[in-house]
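Researcher: Here's the sequence for the chain we discussed earlier.
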Amino acid sequence: MGERARILVVDDDESVRKVLATILEEEGYAVDTAKNGTEAIKKSKVKFYNLALIDIRLTDMEGTKLLTKVKDTMPKMRKIIITGYPSLQNAIEAVNRGADAYVLKPFDMDKVLETIKDQLKKQEEEKRYTQKKVAEFIETRVKELEEEKTITHKKPR
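Model: Thanks. This is the structure I predict for it:
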């Protein structure tokens, strides 16, 4: 990616936000933080983020609920749930509500960084695929319009 990927870190624990922000900025990402779901929703309505790291337990709402709220404001943003409370039920709910990945606390930062890179790569692939499909649609539509124009001009009046 030519520009720095923008990441939103959503966690009610200030120390977690600071540590993640520092490490991610050292890795070259542009990082913003939110202390709860409400703040994350507000920020995602005015700024573009490539990816969000969302704690599953926030002070004002469950992270899984935030997944659907943020999805409404940025449908192409990749969303990774972070949790210190791993369970099959949490994982299933996170995936069902739109999480693209799931990482555990305490963090294995190599694993977190690898997950982020994988998600950003998938986002870039989806973007290229979408652009290709739009270009194909436009090319096809131009041919259709040219054909309609030819047929219209050949009709006797």
